[in-house]
Write a structure and sequence with these properties.
The complex is a heterodimer of chains A (409) and B (82). Chain A is α/β, with parallel strands linked by helices and 409 residues long. Chain A has 13 helices and 14 strands. The longest helix of chain B has 15 residues, at 36-50. Classes of the chains: A alpha/beta (409), B mainly alpha (82).
């Protein structure tokens, strides 16, 4: 069976737009959560979010920028960064064997909303000619293929919060089973629009703003957690087959050793212990590893009342006596919940943890919930650890989980 | 030079971030650097500017002058008093 490695990474995030800056900020416990900078913030009940500092005109010309929804801008920039990082000379590879799999939750939300504003608020009867092309769910992955002439498999996964872990896992299977040699995989999300935030408010899953420090509003595994903070950004990794990566002398971040995805089929929003455990078990079963080999877990850790207790119980169910020995962090405490991009951004955090032998913290954890009694690396990251195998969890509304395992080579 | 041409040059220059004086009516849309989708976008912006509605995309719009003629024709039809 072919072995698959990660040779490049790219990111746009609320904590910086390179993997190095992003991870340094995680280790320093910095928060990307703040008052939303928008012309509609005053009208919102929840006024905090984790925004990316990203000016498209620094990366694309004006005409191109006007034809790309923000979700595609993030994706294209991250893909270009990941390809450059991998130092993959596309002129030297068969591009029909290079594909793109992305995850997204709301895709071109801003373009759809802009269209509705024109039609229903402004009573206009015409939409921009690019509306469909900017809003369609597959826009971001298509734009990457177009930019680089990549004619291998190109798919977009929409499984809500687990979309990009599923995209990365399915891309891994494409190479593993011989349908492609190189895959760009990850996710992108740009949903900080008035309508989308209002819809999330209505679901009552958003964190209350911390009155003393808005940046500390997302409190995973804490007794006073009140929900998630919406975030935006993208992350994309380059996956390729181990032997060809070695043959071209590529820098190898890690091997992707496991992937599992199941649906807990219980409730549209409430996760189940068995459902989350199933995805983790499936990932372990697809790898050569035993539960006790896992040395770090980047948790889903949304900071909703329901998820964090269920995830704790699921980890205990999978790892048994080993569970309390595993450092586990929810980096969402710092970068917020990037929905369709969450898994990919957290996978980058996991890969950097393996590379730097350092575990990022769960911040804002001063008042642990007794139901969340594992080692959540509270408030202070750890350096100088010995880490060989790490797991990254994503679970989702709708029930589809996606769990990835990466191993140091 | 017609107002329509000036306005279209301004729209295209703004879209492509270039000098309007570098664009002339004999240029084909392709020479200017606009594919068929870009041309739709230019027409969309012109519709807003001139408060007209282009319902027929059948007309062959090869050069910028073709677009100017189409817009002028529609202004005449849709705003006969101006």
């Amino acid at each position: 069976m072919r072995r698959i490695v990660i040779t490049g990474m790219g990111i746009v995030s609320p904590l910086g737009n390179t993997p190095e800056i992003f991870f340094a900020n995680l280790m320093a416990g910095k928060s990307g959560v703040r008052r939303l900078q928008s012309d509609f913030t005053d009208r919102l009940d929840v006024k905090i979010a984790a925004q990316a500092d990203f000016d498209p005109l620094q990366h694309f010309n004006k005409n191109k920028t006007s034809m790309l929804d923000r979700v595609s801008q993030f994706a294209l920039y991250s893909a270009n960064q990941a390809l450059a990082d991998a130092q993959l000379d596309l002129a030297q590879v068969d591009k029909s064997r290079v594909g793109v799999y992305l995850g997204t939750g709301m895709a071109g939300a801003a373009s759809i909303e802009e269209g509705y504003v024109r039609l229903y608020r402004d009573n206009l009867d015409r939409l921009k000619p690019f509306t469909v092309l900017m809003a369609m769910n597959s826009a971001a992955s298509s734009q990457i293929a177009l930019e680089h002439g990549l004619s291998g498999p190109n798919l977009t996964y929409c499984t809500a919060c687990s979309s990009s872990n599923v995209a990365i896992g399915e891309a891994y299977r494409q190479i593993r089973h011989g349908y492609a040699d190189v895959m760009l995989a990850g996710g992108s999300e740009a949903l900080l629009t008035y309508g989308t935030i209002r819809a999330w408010e209505a679901l009552r899953t958003l964190a209350k703003e911390d009155p003393n420090d808005p940046g500390a509003s997302c409190k995973p595994f804490s007794l006073d957690r009140s929900g998630l903070v919406l975030g935006e950004g993208a992350a994309i990794v380059v996956l390729e087959e181990l032997e060809s990566a070695q043959a071209r002398g590529a820098k190898i971040y890690a091997e992707l050793t496991g992937y599992g995805s199941c649906n807990d089929s219980g409730h549209i929003t409430s996760p189940t212990v068995e459902g989350q455990a199933m995805s983790m078990r499936a990932a372990l079963a697809s790898s050569p590893l035993k539960p006790e080999d896992i040395g770090y877990i980047n948790a889903h850790g949304t900071a909703t009342v329901m998820n964090d207790a269920v995830e704790t119980a699921a980890i205990k169910s999978v790892f048994g006596e080993h569970a309390p020995k595993i450092p586990i962090s929810s980096t969402k405490s710092m970068h917020g919940h990037l929905m369709g991009a969450a898994g990919a951004v957290e996978f980058v955090a996991t890969l950097k943890a393996l590379e730097q032998q350092a575990v990022p913290p769960t911040t804002n954890l001063h008042n642990p919930d007794p139901k969340c009694d594992l080692d959540y690396v509270p408030n202070q990251g750890r350096t100088g650890v010995t880490l060989r195998h790490a797991m990254s969890n994503s679970f989702a509304f709708g029930g589809t989980g996606g769990v990835l395992i990466a191993s140091k080579i | 030079m017609s107002d329509t041409l000036q306005t279209l040059k301004k729209i295209i220059a703004e879209k492509l971030d270039r000098d309007p004086e570098s664009i002339s009516p004999e240029n084909t849309m392709e020479d200017i650097g606009l594919d068929s989708l870009d041309t739709f976008d230019v027409i969309f912006r012109a519709e807003e500017e001139f408060n007209i509605k282009v319902t027929d995309y059948q007309a062959e719009l090869k050069t910028l002058q073709d677009v100017v003629n189409l817009i002028d024709q529609l202004i005449k039809e849709q705003h006969p008093t101006t």
